[in-house]
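Morning!

This is the sequence you dropped in the shared folder:
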Amino acid sequence: HMIGNIGNIIKDFAADTKVLSLNANIEAARAGAAGREFAIVAKEVYNISREIDNATEKINSIVGSVRNTTHETSNQIAEISHLVIGLNETFAEFSENVESLFANLGTQNAQITQRIKQLLQTNSQAEESVELF
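The structure's back. C-alpha cells below.
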C-alpha cells in the first residue's frame, strides 16, 4: 500500500507541475519576446511532468499486478496448507491402521503358534500311542 501511496503522491506532484508549467507558459506569452526562453523551459518542464505521470501510471500498474500476484500466491499457500493438514490427518489414520494391522497380525501369529504347538503335541502323543501298540 505504501508504494501505491507514493505513486499517487508522485502523480499529484506531476499534475501540479503541469499546472505550474502551463501558468509559466502563460506568463512567458505575456512577456512577449523576453519570455521566449522561459516558455521553452516551461514546455520542457511540462514534458517532464507528462513523462513522470506516464511512469507513475506504469508503476501503479506494476504495483497492482504485484498485489494481485501476492494475493493469489497467498491463496495458493493457504490451499497447500489445508492439503498438507489433510495429508497429515490421512497419514495419522493410515499409521493407526497399520499399527492395528500389526497388532492383529501379532495376535494371529501368537494364536497360530499356539495352535501349531497344540498340533505338534497332539501329533507327538499320537506317535507315542502308535508305538505302544
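Headline: Helices lie at 2-31, 36-132.

More detail when I'm at my desk.
O.
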